[in-house]
Design a protein that fits this description.
130 residues, 45% helix, flat
């Protein structure tokens, strides 16, 4: 539990209400799940690339949503953006997320196409050397 011992917060995965009021709920977990989906689609890129922690806090609490990666289908991105609804009660439940994802996995289509991926879009400030 190094994370808890160091008193650091997972800012890049926190919901607006978590950043503002330190409120944690199933709905804030759904927000984090949307971030996880984005990470999977970008093959492990750091969320909110090129933003500092302070910028992330400021932008997320103002309603900022990461843009759709060019290689990600709209259907999958719509699930992500619903996870990032500002009002927690408007976010999908995990049951609804599962209902949305299952048909996508059963039918072949390009909801993710890595041949169109521009990896430079997902470089983080921490990865850039001066």
């Amino acid at each position: 539990m190094e994370f808890l011992a160091s008193n650091k917060k997972p800012t890049r995965w926190m919901s607006p209400e978590g950043l503002q009021n330190k409120n944690c709920s199933v709905e804030s977990d759904v927000w984090s799940y949307g971030i996880l989906l984005w990470e999977i689609v970008t093959l492990g890129a750091r969320p909110y690339p090129k933003m500092t922690m302070d910028m992330v806090k400021q932008q997320v609490t103002k309603g900022y949503k990461m843009p759709r990666p060019s290689h990600c289908g709209q259907e999958l991105y719509s699930i992500m953006t619903n996870c990032w609804e500002m009002e927690p009660e408007k976010r999908y439940s995990y049951d609804v997320i599962q209902q949305k994802l299952e048909p996508m996995m059963e039918v072949y289509h390009e909801y993710l196409s890595v041949r169109n991926m521009d990896e430079s879009l997902y470089e983080s400030l921490a990865d850039i050397t001066v």
